[in-house]
C-alpha cells in the first residue's frame, strides 16, 4: 500500500481546517453527510476526469470508492491511501500514483500488491484511449491531393488510406500543393485519423520522387522504392 503523506492541508473557504470533513469546498464528494463518514464507512468521489497534461486525462469508467481508516482514506483497489487533511488534492495523488505504477509496469518492476492494484486501475479507466492520447507521433509519408481555401487538406497516406485533415490539424501541410509528397510526424486518434501533423518536410513531386532509383540497388529495394520489377 502506497501512502501519500506529504499532501497539503485541506482548508475551507474561510481558511478553517476541514479535519474530519471528507468534502473539500468544491464539493466532489457525494456523501450526503460527511460528518457521519467514520472509520470503515464508504463514499464515492464524483470526479471522473483527472488531468495528466494538456488535453490528456485519466477517464474513469466508474467513480472512485473511498474507505475511511482513521486519519487516512483508502482509494479502494488502487493501493493508495491519502491523509484526510489532504483530500483537497486527491486528484494530484491519483495521477501521481497512476504514473508511478505505470512506470513500474513498463519496467516490469511491480510487486505482487502493486500488480493487483495496477490491474484494478487498468480496468477502472479507459486505458486504450489514454494510450492513444499519450502515444508519441509516428513518422509517416503521404501525398497532397487537394488543398481547400479554408486550409483543409485531402491526403493520401503511404498505405493508400485517404482522409481530409482539418486546417487546425494539418499544420504546414496547408502550404503544399496537390501532387507534393511529404514526410511528417503524425498523431492519430483511436480510429486512426490524424489529430496532429507536425515536423512537415517536403519530399518533392510525387510523380518523380522514386524515378531515380540507383541501378546498383538490390532488386528487393528497387521494387520497394517504386523502381519496378
What is the domain tally? 2
Q: What's the alpha carbon Rg, rounded to whole Å?
A: 26 Å
Major sheet summary line: 5 strands, mixed
How would you name the oligomeric state of the polypeptide chains in this document?
single chain
Distance between the termini: 62 Å
Structural class: alpha+beta
Instruction: Report the average pLDDT across residues.
Output: 78
Shape summary: elongated
| Parts with pLDDT < 50 across at least 5 consecutive residues | 2-37
Order of helices and strands: EEEEEEEHHHEEEHEEH
Q: What would your notes on this structure say?
A:
The protein has a five-stranded mixed beta sheet with strand order 1-7-6-5-2, covered by helices on one side. A five-stranded antiparallel beta sheet has the order 10-9-8-11-12. The model is unreliable at 2-37 (pLDDT under 50). Strand 11 (180-188) and strand 12 (194-205) form a beta hairpin. It is α+β, with helices and mostly antiparallel strands and 229 residues long. It folds into two domains: 2-131, no CATH class; 138-224, Beta Barrel (OB fold (Dihydrolipoamide Acetyltransferase, E2P)), CATH 2.40.50.140. It has helices at 90-106, 112-124, 127-134, 167-170, 219-224, and strands at residues 2-3, 42-45, 49-53, 56-59, 64-69, 72-75, 80-83, 138-147, 153-157, 162-165, 180-188, 194-205.
Describe what is shown at a glance.
This protein is α+β, with helices and mostly antiparallel strands.
SSE topology:
Elements: E1 2-3, E2 42-45, E3 49-53, E4 56-59, E5 64-69, E6 72-75, E7 80-83, H1 90-106, H2 112-124, H3 127-134, E8 138-147, E9 153-157, E10 162-165, H4 167-170, E11 180-188, E12 194-205, H5 219-224
Helix pairs in contact: 1-2
Amino acid at each position: 500500500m502506497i501512502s501519500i503523506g506529504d499532501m497539503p492541508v485541506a482548508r475551507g473557504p474561510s481558511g478553517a481546517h476541514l479535519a474530519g470533513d471528507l468534502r473539500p469546498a468544491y464539493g466532489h464528494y457525494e456523501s450526503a453527510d460527511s460528518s457521519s463518514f467514520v472509520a470503515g464507512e464508504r463514499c464515492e468521489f464524483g470526479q471522473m476526469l483527472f488531468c495528466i497534461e494538456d488535453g490528456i486525462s485519466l477517464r474513469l469508467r466508474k467513480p472512485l470508492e473511498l474507505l475511511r481508516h482513521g486519519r487516512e482514506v483508502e482509494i479502494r483497489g488502487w493501493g493508495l491511501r491519502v491523509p484526510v487533511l489532504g483530500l483537497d488534492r486527491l486528484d494530484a495523488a491519483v495521477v501521481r500514483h497512476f504514473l508511478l505504477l505505470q512506470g513500474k509496469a513498463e519496467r516490469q518492476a511491480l510487486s505482487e500488491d502493486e500488480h493487483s492494484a495496477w490491474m484494478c486501475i487498468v480496468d477502472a479507466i479507459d486505458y486504450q484511449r489514454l494510450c492513444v492520447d499519450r502515444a508519441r507521433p509516428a513518422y509517416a509519408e503521404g501525398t497532397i491531393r487537394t488543398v481547400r481555401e479554408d486550409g483543409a487538406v485531402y491526403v493520401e497516406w503511404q498505405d493508400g488510406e485517404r482522409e481530409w485533415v482539418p486546417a487546425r490539424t494539418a499544420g504546414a501541410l496547408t502550404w503544399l500543393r496537390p501532387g507534393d509528397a511529404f514526410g511528417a510526424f503524425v498523431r492519430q486518434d483511436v480510429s486512426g485519423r490524424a489529430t496532429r501533423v507536425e515536423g512537415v518536410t517536403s519530399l518533392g513531386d510525387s510523380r518523380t520522387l522514386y524515378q531515380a532509383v540507383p541501378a546498383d540497388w538490390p532488386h528487393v529495394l528497387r521494387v520497394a522504392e517504386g523502381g519496378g520489377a
